[in-house]
Amino acid sequence: MRWLLVFAIACGGSKAPPAPAASGPPASFTEAAARDDVQVATVNGRPVWGSCVSAQAARGAARDEALAQCIDFELMAQAAEARDLALDRDVVLATRTALVSQLVAREYEDKYDAPEDFGVFWTRSIERNKGRFDHPEARGSAYVRVDVAQNAAPADDAAAKRLIDDIHAALANERGLMKPHLEDIATRVAGTAKLKIAAVPPDLRNGRLHDAYAAALFAIPEIGRVSRPVRTPWGWDIVLWDSVVPEVHATPAEIALQALPEIKRGYFPQWVNLVAKSLGAKIQVVDKNIPLLEDL
After folding, report:
1. Domain-wise residue ranges, the chain
2. Which of 202, 223, 226, 227 satisfies CB 3.0 to 4.6 Å to 140 for a cystine?
3. Nearest-angstrom CA–CA distance, 280 and 292
């Protein structure tokens, strides 16, 4: 690498390679310096900046090695230009990708970083999801049910109640139960009788559970235990409390911290539309029948 350093500095007065055509990508144009950057070398009159050397040194290179690497990079860039690679399709695509990434980083990632930046979009998004940030304790559950219609004959209802009582007797003193335990014990007691056993996720929106079911669930003293038999519109149930989401009453600052990443992703298409309007862009799809890899 040392010979490249000597060669590059010695050629400082030689003729510079031709500049890329105006229609080409700006990938290899002379790099602009940051306000506090320093020029540490030139290659054919083009500057090599101290920031490059610092970046290479941060990756583990010694100072002289880092300088040589940055000079090599500028030399290779000029060689690529001289061979018209600045107009290569992949270079153009990579340059456009970098331009887009820089635009998004500076104009979106950096500037849309607080609730007020999103205007009414933020307000509406939080309102739609307010149950996530402000809710009482929510309990997850499972149940075993003996189906019986609400208007069933008294004899049918009594038979269902006897079966659910037998199942409850086998479960009442158990602790640390989970849905598979509930299912094993209930089906063993029921024999050939038909049961319905299902899980119910925590109700963060509050009010989705039937009142009788919710009352039985919230009367259970600890996770892993079951309720007494309860009559619901669908039959006789035993409810198992198997998980909990603690109550939450988040402050505006806590809501902002939790919601910002998701809202930022959701707002991005609207921001792109604003960019299109600012450009007065007219977009026309000419052909939607583009072959995809899976079609080839």
Report:
1. 1-22+36-87, 89-135+248-279, 137-246
2. 202
3. 30
- Taking the C-alpha atoms of residue 142 and residue 155, their distance in angstroms, rounded to an integer, is 27
Pick from 147, 184, 163, 171: nearest CA to 241: 171
- Contact between residue 143 and residue 197 where contact means Cβ atoms under 8 Å apart: yes
137-246 CATH fold: Chitinase A; domain 3 (3.10.50)
In this structure, how many other beta carbons lie within 10 angstroms of the beta carbon of residue 41? 20
151-166 residue pLDDT tens: 999 999 999 999 999 9
Q: What is the pTM of this model?
A: 0.61
Which residue is listed with tokens 């490249």?
A: 4
Residue type, 294: E
